[in-house]
Amino acid sequence: MLTLDKIYHASFVLKNVVRKTDLIQAPKINPECDIYLKTENLQITGSFKVRGAYYKISQLSDEEKAKGVIACSAGNHAQGVALAASANGIKSLICLPDGAPISKVEATKSYGADVCLVEGVYDDAYNKALQLKDEKGYTFIHPFDDENVIAGQGTIGLELLDQLPEIDAVIVPVGGGGLISGVAFALKSLNPDIKVYGVQASGAPSMVTSIEHGKIECLDTVSTIADGIKVKEPGVNTFEMCQKYVDQIVTVTDDEISSAILALIEQQKLISEGAGAVSVAAAMFNKVPIKGKKVVCLVSGGNIDVTILSRVIKRGLLKSGRTDSFNIELIDKPGQLRDVSKLIADLGGNVISIHHERSNEGSDIIGCYLRIVLETRNFEHKEEIRQALKDAGFTLVE
Fold first, then answer.
1. d(CA 368, CA 365)
2. 118 contacts: CB under 8 Å, gap ≥ 6
3. What is the Cα–Cα distance from 352 to 110, expressed in whole angstroms?
């Protein structure tokens, strides 16, 4: 059984190992409430996962330590286990899904672990890890469904109450459920009035579906940019704890996650991975009832692959009305491009790219098409430019 004493013990063990990450105010995320960010993306290894992994490994017997440890992970737990094992002089083997970001794979190796890439998603890596555990006699370090791991993650709850005693609500990312189980248990044990909300990606709603149906369910497929919470099936312990201690679990789309990542970069100068930004997305898009409340969004990790980051930013710009593209049907005569460009410039739009194409077989013989991509301020600005073009007699083709 998880106890508050165990979480306090984990806090004692971890005090010289992990950072007590900053809690920073972020008023622009949602002006209707008082938002704070718990910056676990700035934790050592770039994620909260090191808390649970280190505490679990610290509690192993000498015999278990001698045999070494094995774990499976989408990336962040892997790094936590690798660092914790190396710090304790223990051999570690990590099974990762072959689709894990290269940055996470290389980081795991850099902390001293051996890596086994497994075809598929997290759950396939999990099955492979269990197989190797039985074959080699390793001690398995579960990423979320383990009492000591949950206790380690629960130390965040203790820190939050120390940093902001008057919290009304906390919004927490949910994959397998280890983080929210620990945080919710710690907070509710010390102050039952605090609301704890969970957030999953809409493409991987395993805990949401399980809670709705009152039993653990395994999804057939999962698909989301939030690879850190792309889990098909929640844990037995975490499912029970979410049922008991979590007030509500909601979902956010990949577009909303991208917008949250972009907001964190622009407004707070923080880099978050998709899984870390789901809590911010839930606050931004009013997925949970937090109006007028003092709210903490737990930004659980910052290990985003830089090759994905540019695509995510592009999605975020589109979702927040910061870019637009449209086709204009023109008569092919001098001055048309100048007139369009001047109109856009006068309204403050910034043209990024332009493509001019002469008529095809389905259009007027003296016609042409102009495709324009531009930067805009917001959705209202986009509509203002489009309407001005129409008012000037230009035909926009969808």
1. 9
2. 72, 95, 96, 97, 98, 124, 125, 128
3. 40
**Residue 262 · residue 2 · CB < 8 Å:** no
Angle in degrees, 0-180, between the axes of helices 4-14 and 178-190, rounded to the nearest 10: 110
Name the residue with tokens 């979702």.
319
- Characterize 263-275 residue by residue with b for buried, 16 or more Cβ atoms within 10 angstroms of its Cβ, and e for exposed: bbbeebebbbbbb
The closest of 359, 353, 357 to 341, measured between CA atoms, is: 353
Using CA atoms, how far apart are residues 36 and 297, in angstroms rounded to an integer? Answer: 6
Instruction: Give the residue numbers marked as catalytic.
Output: 49, 300
- Tens-binned pLDDT, residue by residue, of the chain (398 aa): 899 999 999 999 999 999 999 999 999 999 999 999 999 999 999 999 999 999 999 999 999 999 999 998 867 898 999 999 999 999 999 998 888 778 778 888 999 999 999 998 878 888 999 999 999 999 999 999 999 999 999 999 999 999 999 999 999 999 999 999 999 999 999 999 999 999 999 999 999 999 999 999 999 999 999 988 999 999 999 999 999 999 999 999 999 999 999 999 999 999 999 999 999 999 999 999 999 999 999 999 999 888 888 888 888 888 888 999 999 988 878 888 899 999 999 999 999 999 987 755 555 555 788 899 999 999 999 999 999 999 999 989 87
Between the CA of residue 374 and those of 18, 39, 255, 316, 379, what are the distances in Å? 44, 33, 19, 15, 13
The rounded distance, in Å, linking the Cα atoms of 264 and 262 is 5
Do residues 128 and 118 make contact, with C-beta atoms less than 8 angstroms apart? yes
- Counting other chains too, the contacts that 371-374 makes at CB distance below 8 Å and 24 or more residues apart are 371/325, 371/326, 371/327, 371/328, 372/325, 372/326, 372/327, 372/328, 372/340, 372/344, 373/323, 373/324, 373/325, 374/323, 374/324, 374/325, 374/344, 374/349, 374/350
Distance CA 253, CA 312 (A): 12
